[in-house]
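Input structure tokens:
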């Protein structure tokens, strides 16, 4: 298996405060994995097994997966689930789907059926209660699917905390009218190339591209504006963000696209939920 350069796996540990979190759920541990792109090129079995080992050692209450399990052909999902079935949790695994999981008309059903075979709950504009009725998990359809529907949040009592799974972090902009104690996303791969002490290279890409006439950009591949097709909010490319009382965490993902990663390692996120004072 030939794999793109990604660097060593990074384990990020964060604590997220949630208002009205029941005492029984104070200290709940989530493991967040995203963007595996399991296709024989973008993620090695060695890296995947290491991520599973890290997750199991954290003894999570729940594992959450936020999309892009394959790249285009969905058939590798059958091999992927043979690895993921070794994830150990108290309350199971919840997942939403990403844009690459919808590449063909049959991709969604193929991936959903494979996950269901190992008892992974796939939420598509649905509400799940893996940790009980006091902390619902809302899984949204991918933003680019044409089925993205955050109005499902209207079904929840605004006094009840909730966690949203949504592959594309741009969707955080569109859920601001609702209470979102924590949205978990991926999709960006953290931008893959980061300038230490400065941030994602793509942010500076936009500063450059705006100064070059469009008629010239089309002759320079790097300046054709492809980054805008990934996300609009590159300021949310990775890590923790807050808008008002709503909170977002964006995982850098496990899989890697060309040309590789630089100062932006693949990630397993271990999240501890705490009751806000």
């Amino acid at each position: 298996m030939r794999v793109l350069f990604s660097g060593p796996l990074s384990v990020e540990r964060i604590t997220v405060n949630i208002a009205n979190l029941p005492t029984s759920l104070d200290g709940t541990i989530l493991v967040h994995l995203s963007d595996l792109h399991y296709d024989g090129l973008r993620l090695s079995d060695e890296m995947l097994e290491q991520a599973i080992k890290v997750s199991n050692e954290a003894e999570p209450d729940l594992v959450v997966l936020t999309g892009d399990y394959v790249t285009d052909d969905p058939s590798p999902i059958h091999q992927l689930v043979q690895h993921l079935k070794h994830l150990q949790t108290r309350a199971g695994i919840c997942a939403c789907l990403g844009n690459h999981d919808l590449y063909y008309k049959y991709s969604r059903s193929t991936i959903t059926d494979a996950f269901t075979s190992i008892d992974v709950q796939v939420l598509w504009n649905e509400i799940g209660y893996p940790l009980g009725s006091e902390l619902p998990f809302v899984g949204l359809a991918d933003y680019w699917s044409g089925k993205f529907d955050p109005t499902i949040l209207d079904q929840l009592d605004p006094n009840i905390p909730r966690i949203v799974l949504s592959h594309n972090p741009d969707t955080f902009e569109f859920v601001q009218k609702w209470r979102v104690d924590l949205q978990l996303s991926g999709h960006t791969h953290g931008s893959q190339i980061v300038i230490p002490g400065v941030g994602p290279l793509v942010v500076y890409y936009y500063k450059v591209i705006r100064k070059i006439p469009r008629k010239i950009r089309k002759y320079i591949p790097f300046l054709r504006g492809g980054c805008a097709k990934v996300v609009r909010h590159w300021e949310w490319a990775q890590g923790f963000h807050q808008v008002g009382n709503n909170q977002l965490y964006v995982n850098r993902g496990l899989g890697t696209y060309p040309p590789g990663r630089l100062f932006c390692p693949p990630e397993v996120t271990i999240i501890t939920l705490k009751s806000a004072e």
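The chain has one domain: 10-275. DSSP finds five helices and 14 strands in the chain.
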